[in-house]
Design a protein that fits this description.
The chain is of the alpha/beta class. Helix content is about 35%, strand content about 15%. It has a six-stranded parallel sheet, with helices on both faces. Strands 7-8-9 form a three-stranded antiparallel sheet, with helices on one face. A two-stranded antiparallel ribbon has the order 10-11. Helix 3 links the parallel strand 4 and strand 5. Helix 4 crosses helix 5, helix 4 packs across helix 6 and helix 5 packs across helix 6. It is elongated. It starts with 13 loop residues before the first strand and ends in a 10-residue tail after the last strand.
């Protein structure tokens, strides 16, 4: 895939990406989306998990047999001509290939070497196998995605792999590149998903320390117990989300649902939650999802329909912002983010 010319804010940045799955390809796409020249080095045989081309946008690719002297030499030359390298293998794999960071200390001292793994480069679990669900579990964050009597559940890959991994790899890479401009020296970026997810949960830890977060779902409005913060089923079997946290938003929710006999000042009275939640759920079941969208979307109720992956690109807000783009084959994919006032 030939990368198109770019005038993005990272134009001129050269990055080598070692082909893999999960967070490393997304981090590479983020860089490419913003103008970096990202070259992916593939090895013969392809990937174990076929994730399609959705994370290849804007990248160039080359296939090298790193088990041969010629392929290894070409890979080293490509890395020495780049500003940064990113890889997502278990600790030690790049060293065994002969492409570890120490190889380039003398020949390319400014190289920033980005590494993303689940458990990190060090620690007792560094060599253990794992996946997104495991990294999120050990940070305590998975326990914050549950309801009373129900096993925790999270959206696939988003929190550990992409949030805790790809985003912190990209951020760490840019921080190290900025520092290298002043010091003239590169360094290794150790982006562990467990570290990233832990940091993403800073607000939860802050609320917990302040006594405002309960680990018991029935006492925590975030954990599907309250009548004002949850997803509710509609008459057509589809769902809507409501997040009326603030008192004024809660009052509007009650008004728009016709629950005029409920005192909005008693919002935090947990003893009233079970019965009132049933009333809210029953009211929502009276209409279809789209009927509720027509009535509540854009209001201060803090409302949004729960859309499928098929529906999301066609939502009016997504269309107006260009949040998704269509490939030549007509498939939707998320557009580059964030937006810049000058750099495109």
């Amino acid at each position: 895939m030939q990368a198109p010319p770019s005038a993005g804010p990272l134009a001129g940045l050269r990055v080598i990406e070692m082909a893999g799955i999960g967070p490393c390809p997304l981090a590479g796409m983020l860089l490419a989306d913003h103008g970096a020249d990202v070259l992916v080095i593939e090895r013969p045989g392809g990937q174990v998990l076929d994730t399609g081309v959705g994370l290849d946008r804007g990248k160039r690719r080359t296939c090298l047999d790193l088990k041969t002297a010629g392929g290894l030499a070409e890979a080293r030359a490509l890395i020495e001509g780049a500003d940064a390298l990113i890889e997502g293998f278990r600790p030690g794999v790049m060293e065994r290939l002969g492409l570890g960071p120490e190889v380039f200390q003398a020949s390319h001292p400014r190289l920033v070497y980005g590494r993303v793994t689940g458990w990190g480069q060090t620690g007792p679990l560094a060599q253990a196998a794992g996946h997104d669900i495991n990294y999120v579990a050990v940070t305590g964050v998975l326990s914050a995605a549950t309801r009373a009597g129900v096993a925790p559940s999270i959206p696939a890959t988003l929190i550990g792999d992409m949030g805790g991994g790809a985003m912190f790899l990209a951020f760490g890479l840019m921080a190290a590149l900025w520092e290298a401009q002043r010091s003239g020296r590169g360094q290794v970026v150790d982006a562990a998903m467990v570290d990233g997810v832990s940091l993403l949960s800073s607000l939860l830890h802050s609320l917990h320390a302040a006594g405002r977060w309960s680990d018991k779902p029935e006492q925590n409005f975030f954990l599907h117990s309250s009548p004002f913060y949850d997803c509710f089923e509609c008459a057509d079997g589809r769902f809507v989300s409501i997040g009326a946290l603030e008192p004024q938003f809660y009052a509007e929710l009650l008004q728009r649902l016709g629950l005029d006999d409920v005192d909005p000042a008693a919002q935090q009275d947990r003893s009233q939650w079970p019965a009132l939640r049933e009333r809210v759920a029953a009211r929502i079941r009276e209409k279809s999802r789209d009927e509720w969208s027509a009535q509540l979307e854009g209001s201060n109720v803090c409302f949004a329909p729960v859309l499928t992956l098929t529906e999301a690109p066609l939502h009016p807000h997504a269309l107006a912002r260009g949040s998704f783009t269509q490939t030549e084959g007509g498939h939707w994919q998320p557009a580059a983010a964030p937006r810049f006032s000058r750099s495109r």
